[in-house]
């Protein structure tokens, strides 16, 4: 059989696939290949074939060669988000093209600023028994240059066939007892399948009188192998002994989900074996009367029925546009979902492992083969996928084993992902019932931000952290919230009455009537205190002795101004400009930014407006300011580091602020400063832009969010106008605890004495050179922290808008001497709990 030659589809720089900054491509999950960093604007066909897929966003083309080989050309990374802007397809699905024929024209100028990367993988997604020899040297390449040879791999295909030839080969077998706590469920099956794919051998597993190929996670799942079961691994072909040994070792080791059985241990029946919970989803459903412990994210107490938003159902047509079209639609949808699931940051920890299993299921030939068979019979892509995945889910439920039945949800989840992708849309927004407590695995800032006022009265999440942006938004809305409650919270049935008591850190499930009454009374008295504070919101922020403490509000948009002023905000101590930049396809330009800042300044009617420069990166990604995958995003390109690395972003924002400055008392604040030279660099750009526009240089302040900035506070303060402590990040970096990681959320407390000592050091640094020091992180919104911060020397508090009146009421109740004494004691305390106890005692003494 003749070999097939592939030519370069683009001019540019040819590099190995492993260099693509995206694990889905780099890890070869979609197939073998290379990548080109393009210089040319036209993507050409690497070989003659039929166009069997062309994504509607125009960035990805799939070709099938007459020999059955399939190629995927994917222009850039995350370019699907551009929605077709900058891409002009030159061919259609179903068209036959010749080698070198132009397939796609790309406006590089337009796409370059918006895409995460332009690097373009060329992948052999279906080798059809051919072996690929990449012949072009890495480096400069011209479109049309010979790039690869595909030669028929007779030996390998013969070895891999399951026909009579294989039957004649020697079959090796090995018995293995399964120590995994939850048996061979989706994730271990996926990992085993991955190992098998790396060898030439055909491996099957036999259990309970049935057999399945180890190459198919779905088939393995159907065997419902449980903890303690003994299975037989059967292997034939090349490397049979080696692969058998490796698989047996993996299973016997427990694959991280169970201790290996002692070698001499008797073989026991699996039923009733104790199992150790290994994931959030495996925590048992809590019983009525029980209480789950969580981490305080936003203060308060609330009572109400649980509301778990239900995912909307996508509409699925029974009949599609014919087998050819539906095959292409399904293929494209699977590729898109695969890319979305594998995107860096798509998930972390347990969820990442679950997504890994979903990725393997997407690759499972049993699933795609079965869907393909239905499509060939005239069924639409969506209906075929739905039937196959629901049948698998049903089979798992029918095993009667709750552990496997729970895995059915993975198939349902995967079905929905692909259905929405086929429809090219997102699931519709959900409307919350009034008075309910929203329970979710985790929430996105945009989801909390989208909640209508008067709907939910509290939030409870399985995961999440107390200083996340979700917590910040909840606090700004006065919504009590507990996070990191664990997976058990997801087992509470909809409509169950719960008490969310943030101070106690508990979510009580279906408590007795007396407790419900008591909690309702506590919520009501808290409301009464809030109402009294609100009635006095117009007073100046000051202690009982009259020491002036400015009480500002943190804002994210123009819409936040009115509620903040209603609470008595005396200005804005932190405008989080990134909210203007997030959740949108492209960056706001200078005019849009100037209009936004000017509008907020005018709405504040002359009160100070401190505009923080863009703080993205870390836990706040923006799609159009792509940042290469980072091992430690919190320690990487974020905050002002991005502004300094992308000068046009910084100067555009500074110009917009300067243009808006005439609308009010606008000041500028720089996030994530760690070194004095960063401040100097920003000041230089600010002065240059102000000179260009012929306007005065506004006040420039530094956010103290890193321990480095706190210990250098005197030197920083000498070169700026004010310091404002971002206690959220300062806590994260001081304690080395990720603010978004529930595993450490328990210890992430801004009242930790280590953080307070840095606050004290910052205040001392500021006062040494006569500069004021404020706090704009979460501590400023915590009434317990307020007297302490005042005692440490803080002169301005910028709180969540919903907390402003209460903060003023707290200030009015405490004396300067009381605050100073509390601060002295707190600096000597050994733990955050001790500090909290001291602060609580003081507030109780003054009747709060
Ligand atoms: C902080 O870190 O405390 C802060 C106010 O900034 P953000 O929460 O937006 O990171
Ligand atoms: Mg911060």
UniProtKB/TrEMBL annotation:
GO terms for cellular component: cytoplasm. Keywords: Cytoplasm, Kinase, Magnesium, Metal-binding, Phosphotransferase system, Plasmid, Pyruvate, Sugar transport, Transferase, Transport. It catalyses: L-histidyl-[protein] + phosphoenolpyruvate = N(pros)-phospho-L-histidyl-[protein] + pyruvate. One of its GO terms (molecular function) is phosphoenolpyruvate-protein phosphotransferase activity. Pfam families: PEP-utilisers_N (PF05524), PEP-utilizers (PF00391), PEP-utilizers_C (PF02896), PTS-HPr (PF00381), PTS_EIIA_1 (PF00358). Residues 22-126 form the PTS EIIA type-1 domain. Residues 171-258 form the HPr domain. Its cofactor is Mg(2+). PROSITE patterns: PEP_ENZYMES_2, PTS_EIIA_TYPE_1, PTS_EIIA_TYPE_1_HIS, PTS_HPR_DOM. Its EC number is 2.7.3.9. It is found in: Cytoplasm. GO terms for biological process: phosphoenolpyruvate-dependent sugar phosphotransferase system. InterPro entries: Dup_hybrid_motif (IPR011055), HPr-like (IPR000032), HPr-like_sf (IPR035895), PEP-util_enz_mobile_dom (IPR008279), PEP-utilizing_PTS_enzyme (IPR050499), PEP_util_C (IPR000121), PEP_util_CS (IPR023151), Phosphohistidine_dom_sf (IPR036637). Belongs to the PEP-utilizing enzyme family. PANTHER family: PHOSPHOENOLPYRUVATE-PROTEIN PHOSPHOTRANSFERASE. This is phosphoenolpyruvate--protein phosphotransferase. It comes from Novosphingobium resinovorum. The lineage of its organism: Bacteria, Pseudomonadati, Pseudomonadota, Alphaproteobacteria, Sphingomonadales.
